[in-house]
Amino acid sequence: SDLPELRQPLRDERQITTVAQAEIGPSTSIAAPPASEQQAYEQAFDALKALHYSESAGLFRDFLQQYPDNDLTPNAYYWLGESYYGTQNYQVAEQTFQNLLRRFPNDAKAPGALLKVGYCQYELKQWDKARATLNQVRQQYPDSQEARLAEGRLRALGTQAGN
Predict the structure, then answer these.
(1) CA 88 – CA 139 distance, rounded (Å)
(2) How far apart are CA 103 and CA 78, in angstroms?
(3) 31, 76, 91, 144: most buried, per Cβ within 10 A?
(4) For 109-150, how does the pLDDT look when each residue is reduced to its tens digit (9 = 90+)?
(5) DSSP 8-state code for residue 69
(6) Are 103 and 134 in contact (CB under 8 A)?
(7) Torsion sign (Cα): 115, 45, 86, 50
(8) Residues near 163 by Cβ (< 8 Å), separated by ≥ 6?
């Protein structure tokens, strides 16, 4: 249940320390609020690297809300989309990548975001949209790693979609 467990009040300071240590445990960390924009971003990115997708998504959302016009904002959108993609929340991931493309169409993360839009459409079995988006990646960013990855997914799409 979502209701907190009821406990008897603790009367001794030693009991408080013991209970706090037992509840936190060795693998749980309590993150202090970041002191700067860079630290907030790094905290979210570290959670993503540790494959803590839900935590990462929350931290990137917080970052974007607090620092909507930071130099790291396009990256935060990209990695927020990756957090959603990692939990197979493809619709929300696609929307997040689309937000990056709308707000920062010329950013260095734009080719990757467009590729990921195509990947999300592929995972959602939106074959025609995925094909169009992946071809757009190839046309807009020829000779890029993203174009090569799009070509690979297009080959898989031909097999997957029965074409």
Answers:
(1) 27
(2) 12
(3) 76
(4) 999 999 999 999 999 999 999 999 999 999 999 999 999 999
(5) T
(6) no
(7) positive
(8) 127, 157
